[in-house]
């Protein structure tokens, strides 16, 4: 690249001084010296300056820059900032012994935070966290913020960790973790949460309680199930349990009750006592499903464009290399000044092709950055599905409790009727009746809590849909502006390179005339 762009007259690809400069061309009266300061700035320079002023790039050294930690919309909407960077991956040894070779080692990452949020009690923090801590944070946020569009965490990628080079995998995970934490920092509710604050600020072992894995919860629920069926353990859904999904496996009996209710809803003749009646929500849910499909299609087309631009850059580079070889051959075989001039012209074509190749690669890098917005919103669709699943689960819990209450009242009425027919009453039946009344009271409380939880999730869904719509509009406008600006600017830069070649070879057109 440097040999092509240099202007040394001693280079073998350049013509001799006697050919390159004629007396007429060196006359300052006929050809005054060019003053670059008199030129008006090009469209590319103006637009690039404006664009880079609005979207400064990260330096990639773990230092926090404006764009790298918050989007333009978050900067304009609030004076509070929460800037996060992930850097310096470090291999560490776990204190516990492992029978698997290398199983007691893990990678920790330095997480640096800068903020002016008062709840954090400071401005700058640095902690080391491992991927397991990120999993714990994600699980806690999912449990505590049902109905919100919580950004999904990166996958564990066990297969990739075995296939990819260790250094490449660690770097890829570092980038993914940084993106994930920055998405959390942009969420209006999560950024103020105690869970995220503790994760970002507390040194040493993270004090958040580790979530029990699904297999362990299912095992505990399976052990408890026989006792519930035999009456040795309470089979009534407690009020404090309804704020959690039955799919967690904590209560297998509740899980089967809700599964039965789901089957009745789908296949039974009677309509559920409570249904989703928010027509506006149902319409927006359908639109979001359609949006996901449109995002998928747009993402595929964006990938096609990126591949085409990449191929164009590669082909242009190969063309430049071919002309360089041809120029060298012509220059070595030259026996006249005319051949040397033609060799110099081919060298200019080669230089323009190589520069165009570089510009295509730069354009492609910017295009990938802009279209990353599509992939980010596609990833958010998983969060949307999870939030809507929370809503459906909460509604199913309400329906199950209403059915459970109906069954309990029916049993109590029958038992009370049969007891009243016995003179003096039956102590065992009276005791059973009292137990049923206690179960009805607890279930009524649980139903009230379940309805409140369902209404809370409804409100969370409503506010999140509105927020997502606003952010999507702002993000897509920025994406399209950036994409168009770069396409126009780089097209001008590439065009300018070929204009120079056209001007330098214009004498051939005049010779034909």
TrEMBL record:
Question: What Gene Ontology terms describe where this protein resides (cellular component)?
Answer: cytosol; Golgi apparatus; multivesicular body membrane; retromer complex
| Keywords annotated in UniProt | Coiled coil, Cytoplasm, Endosome, Golgi apparatus, Membrane, Phosphoprotein, Protein transport, Transport
Subcellular location, record wording: Cytoplasm; Endosome membrane; Golgi apparatus, trans-Golgi network membrane; Prevacuolar compartment membrane
For this protein, the record's Pfam families field holds: PX, Vps5
Q: Which GO terms describe its biological process?
A: protein maturation; protein transport; seedling development
**Record membrane topology:** Peripheral membrane protein
Taking the first listed entry, what is the main subcellular location of this protein, grouped into a coarse class? cytoplasm
Annotated InterPro entries: AH/BAR_dom_sf (IPR027267), PX_dom (IPR001683), PX_dom_sf (IPR036871), SNX2A/B (IPR044279), Vps5_C (IPR015404)
A single GO molecular function term of this UniProt record: phosphatidylinositol binding
Read off the Gene3D superfamilies from this record: Arfaptin homology (AH) domain/BAR domain, Phox-like domain
- Keyword Transport appears in the UniProt entry: yes
Biased composition of type Low complexity is found at: 70-79
Chain coiled-coil ranges: 274-308
Locate the region Disordered.
Answer: 1-25, 55-82
Organism domain of life: Eukaryota
Q: Which residues form the PX domain?
A: 87-207
Query: Entry's SUPFAM superfamilies?
Result: PX domain
PANTHER family xref list: OS05G0346100 PROTEIN, SORTING NEXIN-RELATED
Family affiliation: Belongs to the sorting nexin family.
Name it. Sorting nexin 2A
């Amino acid at each position: 690249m440097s040999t092509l762009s240099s202007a040394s007259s001693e280079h073998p690809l350049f013509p001799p001084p006697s050919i390159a400069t004629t007396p007429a061309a060196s006359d300052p009266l006929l050809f005054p010296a060019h003053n670059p300061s008199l030129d008006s700035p090009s469209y590319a320079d103006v637009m690039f300056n404006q664009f880079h002023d609005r979207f400064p790039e990260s330096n990639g050294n773990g230092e926090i820059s404006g764009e790298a930690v918050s989007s333009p919309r978050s900067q304009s909407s609030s004076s509070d900032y929460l800037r996060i960077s992930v850097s310096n991956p470090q291999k560490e040894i776990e204190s516990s012994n492992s029978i698997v070779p290398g199983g007691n080692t893990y990678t920790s990452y330095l997480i640096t935070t800068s903020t002016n949020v008062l709840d954090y009690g400071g401005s700058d923090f640095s902690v080391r966290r491992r991927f397991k801590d990120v999993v714990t944070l994600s699980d806690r946020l999912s449990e505590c913020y049902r109905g919100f569009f919580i950004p999904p965490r990166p996958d564990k990628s066990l297969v990739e960790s075995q296939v990819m080079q260790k250094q490449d995998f660690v770097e890829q995970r570092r980038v993914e973790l940084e993106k994930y934490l920055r998405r959390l920092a942009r969420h209006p509710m999560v950024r103020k949460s105690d869970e995220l604050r503790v994760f970002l600020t507390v040194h040493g072992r993270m004090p958040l309680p580790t979530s029990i894995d699904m297999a362990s919860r299912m095992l505990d629920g399976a052990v408890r199930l026989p006792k519930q069926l035999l009456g040795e353990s309470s089979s009534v859904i407690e009020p404090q349990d309804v704020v959690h999904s039955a799919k967690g496996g904590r209560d297998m009996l509740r899980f089967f009750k809700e599964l039965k209710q789901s089957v009745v809803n789908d296949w039974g003749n009677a309509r559920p006592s409570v249904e989703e009646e928010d027509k506006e929500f149902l319409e927006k849910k359908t639109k979001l499903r359609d949006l996901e499909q449109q995002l998928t299609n747009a993402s595929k087309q964006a990938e096609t464009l990126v591949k085409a631009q990449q191929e164009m850059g590669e082909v242009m580079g190969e063309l430049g290399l071919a002309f360089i070889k041809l120029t060298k051959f012509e220059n070595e075989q030259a026996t006249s000044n005319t051949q040397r001039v033609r060799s110099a012209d081919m060298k200019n074509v080669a230089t323009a092709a190589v520069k165009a190749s570089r510009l295509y690669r730069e354009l492609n890098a910017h295009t990938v950055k802009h279209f990353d917005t599509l992939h980010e919103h596609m990833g958010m669709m998983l969060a949307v599905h999870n939030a809507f699943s929370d809503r459906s689960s909460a509604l199913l819990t309400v329906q199950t409790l209403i059915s459970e209450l109906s069954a309990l009242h029916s049993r109590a009425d029958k038992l009370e009727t049969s007891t009243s027919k016995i003179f003096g009453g039956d102590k065992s039946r009276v005791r059973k009746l009292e137990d049923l009344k206690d179960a009805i009271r607890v279930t009524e409380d649980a139903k009230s809590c379940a309805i409140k939880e369902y209404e809370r999730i409804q409100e969370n869904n409503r506010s999140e849909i509105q927020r997502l719509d606003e952010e999507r509009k702002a993000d897509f406008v920025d994406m399209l502006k950036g994409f168009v600006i770069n396409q126009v600017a780089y097209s001008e830069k590439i065009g300018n390179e070929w204009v120079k070649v056209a001007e330098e070879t214009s004498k051939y057109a005049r010779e034909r005339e």
